[in-house]
């Protein structure tokens, strides 16, 4: 797959899913502590979200940091915008802003 194809795939994933996390592993079996913490925060909101296991997609794992300008994983995108990594997601979960953001994202997604 060419670099252009990989970037197009990433862009399609981000635009096709109102809430998307690029993570190591799956929500049921995260393969790093940061991914586990971010998914736990997402799950606590009750919002629906999609995920991409970057360990199963090495080309995306390699290219995404250049697309998002964010060097580490996990990476959470809401309505096509990068929210951030595990620390930001967990901080937003703690102050309640993550739930609000995700509720708005899921409402706007179902309204379209």
Order of secondary-structure elements: HEHEHEEHH
What would CATH call the homologous superfamily? Glutaredoxin
The number of domains is 1
CATH architecture: 3-Layer(aba) Sandwich
| Cα radius of gyration in angstroms | 13 Å
> Could you name the CATH topology?
Glutaredoxin
Please provide the count of β strands: 4
Q: What shape does the CA trace take?
A: globular
Strand proportion, as a percent range, falls in: 15-25%
Strand order of the largest sheet: 2-1-3-4
Query: How much helical structure, as a percent, in the residues?
Result: 55-70%
Instruction: Report low-confidence residues grouped into runs of 5 or more.
Output: none
Please report the first level of CATH classification, the CATH class: Alpha Beta
| Structural class by sheet pairing and helices | alpha+beta
Average the pLDDT over all residues and give the rounded result.
94
Could you characterize what this model shows?
- This protein has 112 residues and is of the alpha+beta class.
- It has five helices and four strands.
- It has a four-stranded mixed sheet with strand order 2-1-3-4.
- Strand 3 and strand 4 form a beta hairpin.
- Helix 1 packs across helix 3 and helix 2 runs parallel beside helix 4.
- The protein is globular, with a radius of gyration of 13 Å.
- The mean pLDDT is 94.
């Amino acid at each position: 797959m060419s670099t252009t194809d990989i970037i197009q795939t990433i862009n399609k994933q981000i635009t096709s899913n109102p809430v998307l996390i690029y993570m190591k592993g799956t929500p049921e079996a995260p393969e790093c502590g940061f991914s586990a913490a971010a998914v736990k925060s997402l799950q606590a909101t009750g919002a629906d979200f999609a995920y991409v296991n970057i360990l199963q997609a090495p080309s995306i794992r390699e290219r995404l940091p250049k697309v998002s300008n964010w060097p580490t994983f996990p990476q959470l995108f809401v309505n096509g915008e990068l929210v951030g990594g595990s620390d930001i997601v967990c901080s937003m979960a703690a102050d309640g802003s993550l739930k609000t953001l995700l509720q708005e994202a899921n409402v706007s997604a179902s309204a379209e």
